[in-house]
Amino acid sequence: MKTALIGSLLWAALTASALAQPVAPIACDRSCLDGFVDRYIDAMQAHAVRPDLFARETKFTENGIRLPLGNEGLWFKMSGKGSYKFYVPDVEAQQVAFLGTLREGGSNANDGTLVGFALRLKIVKNLITEVEQLVIRPETPLGGAAAPATPPRFPPTGEGVEKMGAPNPIFAQVIPEAKRPSREEMIKTANYYFAGLQRNDGKGYYPFTDDCERFENGMQTTNIPQRDPATGQTVKRGCKKQFEESLKGIVSRIRDRRFVAVDRERGIVFSFAFFDHENINWTWQLAELFKVENGQIRRIEAVFHRAPYGINSGWSTYEEGLSEEAQIIR
Fold first, then answer.
1. What is the C-alpha end-to-end distance of the chain, expressed in Å?
2. Are 276 and 262 within 8 A, CB to CB?
3. How many CA atoms lie within 13 A of 14 on its CB side?
4. Are 124 and 95 in contact (CB under 8 A)?
5. Is the four-CA dihedral 173, 176, 177, 180 of positive or negative sign?
6. Looking at the predicted structure, is the pLDDT value of residue 14 above 50?
7. Distance of alpha carbon 107 from alpha carbon 83, whole angstroms
8. How large is the C-alpha radius of gyration of the chain?
């Protein structure tokens, strides 16, 4: 009986000790991370910062500027949702990125101005702790001046992205688990795009598939018939041929390359970066994603707008913001 009593006491002590240990939070899976994007957009449309969704000290930036969460930036006038939705869940990093369209400044959910929208959320203990978003608005003021008589080559970003309808089926193709590279390997491949384009001389390393296509602000920018001034012939250039023949010396610096979400299951890498054109004092602030297969880039989508020259992301130090090295954000 004495032995049994000691055993019972020992079991009770171990049980109490186990119960006293903090329970590790359950990691958010793919659908959970996608759901945080939907819940975040719903909260922004409702202009309500809910305590069951956001951590107490959630950091929020829009277009590289830190703002109070809940009543400024797109939160102030978001009125509805567009139809284009592209989710990039990163289960390993517990972050999720998103590229899509929203509406701003409307009197109802359907009549606002379409804007291009890129987003990163960081999830900790089932709450959003970081919000980083890029809002690509039309160049004309909301509800303001009439469109110019001669339309630009590119329509407003929101309209261009909306017309794409849905992400290309290539992005949904699942990579067999045994063939999935690490996050670091996928980021290394995606970063070759930035390294190859920066100060490009046509002789760099360009790991594109033969069928690679690129879309910028909703418009296809590869394999477009163009007249070659050297020969007078009409040619089409794919991703690699553009880098080798036409996209030379156009970007002086690609910096603050922040790779924020990697979907290893589908081979997608999502990044934020800045393209500086020193000779014209011009900076593009962009979100860009890559479909990576077998160490090559198969498809690219980007949204971007002009930003103050040399602007920082709001998440990097001064040195990181000027760096041309890849940053792996977790």
1. 55
2. no
3. 6
4. no
5. negative
6. no
7. 18
8. 23
Beta strand extents in the chain (DSSP E only): 54-62, 65-66, 78-90, 95-104, 113-124, 127-136, 208-216, 219-220, 226-227, 234-235, 253-263, 268-277, 282-293, 296-307, 326-328
Written as six digits, the tokens of 127 are 């709450």
pLDDT value, residue 135: 98
| C-alpha distance from residue 125 to each of 23, 97, 328 (Å) | 11, 18, 21
* Phi, psi at 151, each rounded to 5°: -65, 145
Given a contact cutoff of 8 angstroms between Cβ atoms, the answer to whether 220 and 236 are in contact is no
> So what's the pLDDT on residue 228?
78
Kindly state the average pLDDT of the residues 39-45.
Answer: 98
Contact 283, 307 (CB under 8 A): yes
Over 50: is that where the pLDDT of 17 sits?
no
Q: What is the pLDDT of residues 159-202, one digit of tens each?
A: 999 999 999 999 999 999 999 999 999 999 999 999 999 999 99
Tell me the C-alpha distance between 197 and 195, whole Å: 6
CB atoms near residue 68 (< 10 Å): 10
CA angle 236, 241, 246 (to 5 degrees): 85
Query: Count of residues for the chain?
Result: 330
DSSP structure class, residue 69: T
Q: What is the token pair recorded at 253?
A: 């610096």
CA-wise closest residue to 129 among 161, 160, 96: 96
Using CA atoms, how far residue 254 sits from 63, 275, 283, 324, in Å, is: 17, 5, 10, 6
Contact 201, 193 (CB under 8 A): no
- What is the chain's mean pLDDT, rounded? 90
Q: Is the pTM of this model over 0.90?
A: no
